[in-house]
Amino acid sequence: MSTPAIVVVGAGPGVSGSVARLFAAEGYAVGLVGIDAAPLSELEATIADVDVRTAIADLTDVESATHAITGLGDHFGRIDVLHFNPSAFREKDPLELTVAELLQDVALGVGALLTAVQAARPYLSSGARVTVTGSMAADEPWHRAASLGVQKAGVRNLVHSLEATLAPDGIRAVSVTVQGTLAREGAFTPDRVAAAILAASRQDEDGWRTDVPYAG
């Protein structure tokens, strides 16, 4: 297949949906991976004129997530952009949060990126990109959602390691740190964040940054 393809992991409304539509407008075939059929179907219906495929998977289940991503890779024959979006929001401060809850959240917000990249790797070739929706919570965590800050700091750190591992093969990784709160209007709409992610994926390789801040 000569058409480039993006696989959006943790697809649904919000930034991930905007990323999917934006890349579709750029001519990419689109694969959507999520845990619930209804949001995937609703998102699929908003994407026109390109090949769109959906796959349902529990991203914290390695076998389920791997099957979903490899199935999309087999269908498209390639993955040019792997976008990772999921995180868990749990409103608990560090005295309320249990270790089990923290690990459960990190399994989604960080661990699932490992699964996704490992599953996608056979379909990634030179020029492919791994992009991640980051957050200012990595640097300025809200104590009432303690696990979210850990997830966002962890996933950004993992992106640095992925970049060092994949770059020799011409595959680059980047996290876009959104330095604001998502809103329906203004600088932090999902569409504007998606545009920042697209731009980060098209950085000049000679000056490649693995962490690109988006301040609106």
UniProtKB/TrEMBL annotation:
Domain of life: Bacteria
Keywords: Oxidoreductase
One of the Pfam families matching this protein, by short name: adh_short_C2
One annotated GO molecular function: oxidoreductase activity
PANTHER family: 5-KETO-D-GLUCONATE 5-REDUCTASE (PTHR43669), ALCOHOL DEHYDROGENASE, PUTATIVE (AFU_ORTHOLOGUE AFUA_3G03445)-RELATED (PTHR43669:SF3)
Family: Belongs to the short-chain dehydrogenases/reductases (SDR) family.
Name of this protein: SDR family oxidoreductase
Organism: Nocardioides luti
